[in-house]
Amino acid sequence: MNTKLTLLLSAGLLMASAGYAQQSNPDTGKNKPTVVAKEDLRDDWAALSHYARENKQVGDPKPGENRVVFLGSSIFERWKTTVPEFFKDRPYLDRGVSGQISGQLLIRFRQDVIDLKPKAVIILAGSNDIASNYGHLTNEYIMNNIRSMVELAKLHHIKVILCAYLPVFDYPWRKGIEPAGKIMALNKLIKAYAAENNLILLDYFTPLVDERNGQKPELTTDGVHPNAAGYRIMATVTEQAIAKALK
């Protein structure tokens, strides 16, 4: 093949390739850029995606590991950022998701508790229900979700530690609903249920409460969430409850 013919064939191939690479949209006649579809998470009401990747990385407990899962909302989620040393070098997995109500914790229970194969789970539920984050939810609604989580845990031989909720005098984002009495009423139900079912009760209310049945000002950032000092008090009673549950 002579040089001139070779050059002509090469030029033709290049033009054909360029034409193929820049095909027009048959509907509009214009080049159509590739569009990456955004993931639709409307079905993930309980935020299962929040810890999905981390759960895969964690893997199964090591032999002899007394793994404990902390299941709750912002109280637990903020704990690991406010006092991260509490979770360092301990077999504790924090699975708090800010803003969640008890029904969302129940939906997450299989993925964020059962599948992690812990020896024990600490369930802190109810405050966001009382704060009416998702409508007007009753203490009976909260207790039904707690009962379901306890039954699931027992079925999978996971020790249960139920929490008496932290005191709250008022919610900064939902002022005037007077939650203190509602939290005390919920705690009464939780304590009775724990006693009836031989469950460990972790009392976060008593060491943090002030004379108004809210949190002591020196132990909280906003009347709802503990500060570092508050979390250190919580750490003490938590370790005691875990030791009791695992003995």
| N→C terminal distance | 88 Å
The largest beta-sheet arranges its strands as 2-1-3-4-5
Contiguous uncertain segments of 5+ residues: 1-27
The topology string of helices and strands comes to HHEHEHEHHEHEH
User: What is the tally of beta strands?
Assistant: 5
| Largest sheet geometry | 5 strands, parallel
Helix segment count? 8
Count of distinct structural domains: 1
Structural class: alpha/beta
What radius of gyration results from the CA coordinates? 27 Å
- Percentage of residues in strands: 5-15%
Residues in helices, as a percent range: 40-55%
Q: What fold name goes in the CATH topology slot? A: Rossmann fold
Full CATH superfamily name: SGNH hydrolase
Task: Tell me what you see in this structure.
The protein is of the alpha/beta class. It is built from 8 helices and 5 strands. The chain has helices at residues 3-21, 49-58, 74-82, 102-112, 127-130, 139-155, 179-196, 228-246; strands at residues 68-72, 92-96, 120-123, 159-164, 200-203. It starts with a helix and ends with a helix. The model is unreliable at 1-27 (pLDDT under 50). Strands 2-1-3-4-5 form a 5-stranded parallel β-sheet, with helices on both faces. The protein is globular. It has a single domain (62-246), classed as 3-Layer(aba) Sandwich (Rossmann fold).
